[in-house]
Amino acid sequence: MRAGELTVKDEEEFSPAKHIRRGDVVEVVNPQGLVTLKLHPPVTKTSQVRGEDTVCAPQADETCPRRALAAHYARNNPGPNEHLFAHNVSGEHQALKKKAFLRALAKAASAAGIKKVHGHAFRIGGTLEYLLRGNSFETVKTHGRWKSDAFQRYLRRHALILAPHLQDVGTLQHDFIEVAIATDEVAEDQDQPAPATV
């Protein structure tokens, strides 16, 4: 997501019609039992009227958004109609301001001895992370809500990203191709269409 979709500009007041609320986050379980978190900011950069859904999934390591949200809820406990990242400031809940968020990131990056992180780096970094995991370009494009192929201009480490897509995938594919060719040859010999396969 874009940092501005999860924060409030410094000069703005929180508005439930414009900014993401805790109630805009729901858990969804698919038929296979896989859990995702669906976030629906009511306004995004590319959808100013209806907003857009985006999803994230639990992870096995410290990057797990589900655990991070649970920790945030336990500490700050925003109400369902408050900003998703409302936190206690001088005894009252305030929406997370974008500049405060970026300052906290800069402080954390400095403490970790890494380069300062900018807001747009999340979309670039998220794109790279999912591609390095072997997800297809179309999956990453859909997940990132990219309306065009513009995300490709941000890509780095092309050799690592393309490696899973360029490999010989082994005997399973070879066996499938042999079966498919044999089926087609039999069908041609019998002058009948090939049987449907699953």
UniProtKB/TrEMBL annotation:
A single GO molecular function term of this UniProt record: DNA binding
The UniProt keywords, alphabetically, are:
DNA recombination
Any single biological process term in GO: DNA integration
Please give the InterPro entries that the UniProt record associates with this protein.
Answer: DNA_brk_join_enz, Integrase-like_cat_sf, Phage_Integrase-like_Recomb
Which top-rank group of organisms is this from?
Eukaryota
This protein is called Tyr recombinase domain-containing protein
Q: Which organism is it from?
A: Meripilus lineatus
